[in-house]
User: What shape does this take?
Amino acid sequence: MLALPMDLRNPADALEEAMLYHRADRFGFVPLLIRTHDVQVDGHLMPVRPQHTYKLSELPTALRFSASMNDDIWITQNEFFRPNRRLVNLGRITLCFADLDYYKLSQFWHSPQAVAVGVLTHCANTGIPKPNLIIDSGRGLQIKWLIDTLPAAALPRWNTVQRAIGVAFKRFGSDARAQDASRVLRLVGTYNTRSRSRVRVIYADTQTPYSFDMLADALLPFSRQELSEIRAQRAEKKQVQADEKERRSDNEAQTPSGLRPLSIQQLWWDRLSDIRALKHLRVWDAVPVGYRDTFLWLAATALSWVLPPARVRQELAELGREFAGTMPESERIQFLSATLTRAEQAAQGMTIELDGCRIDPRYRFSNAKLIELLQVSPDEQRQLKTIISDEEAKQRHAARERARRAAHRIANEGMTRAEYLEAADIKRVQARKFRDQGWSIRRIAAELGISVGSAAGYCKLTA
Assistant: This one.
């Protein structure tokens, strides 16, 4: 048997492993699934796994008790702010992971330790950070990366990293169905009755948890900075096509309104958060009938841009209770049928024609339209993240710019005013030279290491 280095007790117990990413001093809930018996489904035995949800403060006691029950127990890897594991109730993201069903691949007849060595070697050869944990779950391996805790708002980018992990470890039988944030994995220290073996840690290096951005940059084709630059180029191209002035003053990509451009999944996930925030801002125990249908419809639309159609249907049950608890489920499904149909069409690659163009069939709205539909006041907008007017966006942009200038002044405190002005004059000459050569403002800014706004200012002709 191969010996793998470990910085946990060997064998590690359920509490020791789970407390690496769950903390008992935080608010939230962690569900456990415990097998009670099996049933026949299409000729196969499937486990019946009732869910037991515990507060994080109760988790240590629950783990000690559950592990003593010994057989077939699963735990969620992330935390939730309500006592279930619906993604709409996701509280925190605590790690990245993959479930490797290597036993399904004919070329793998090796021991779990040998496959683990293969995983670590693959990481070394490809530049992927090695996992902090490798767990023998009985018939496969769990590989886990401990990361800085992320808010639920980061779900779309986390999903992208999870998919990248799945692709990177496909040769080891990575299960594409076991990548979502509500996934449960077998609990360390318990007994897998299918394989008749103990779930155990076989490799652990927990002293070096990862920054999520570092892990993402290693796995994704573009880093966050590169994506920002790509979006900036696209924004600039649209701006030129619209014959607008080059007016940006932040190194980050900005839309003409001052809003940061987001991926469509991130945009709608943030919009869903804002829709739910509105309910709390208005101190509604239940959304009034006059608003109920609009809130539910827009929440469903948001989910249709973030999750697969089958998952949208599951999550809508939770949102239905939140926004339309008095509406019968059958009526709710009928009311949202068009939204669900459009989501299914999008998943199948279908498009619809609009103004001579083929576009995604899912509903889409501008912020102005959402503000109108939800009747969002200026005071409410100031407490929202994404559903804001152009005026509010400009004010936020101005505040970011003031903060950037203040940080710049602090960074250059040691420079005399004469030295500062001399350096600025040099950059102004260089900027105008590049502009005369036909360079774009953004390219000049990148070359000189200054903001786009400063580059544009340097290039202006004085009277």
Notes: The first helix runs from residue 14 to 18. Residues 58 and 285 are 28 Å apart (CA to CA). Residues 242-259 have pLDDT under 50 and may be disordered. The longest strand covers residues 90-100.
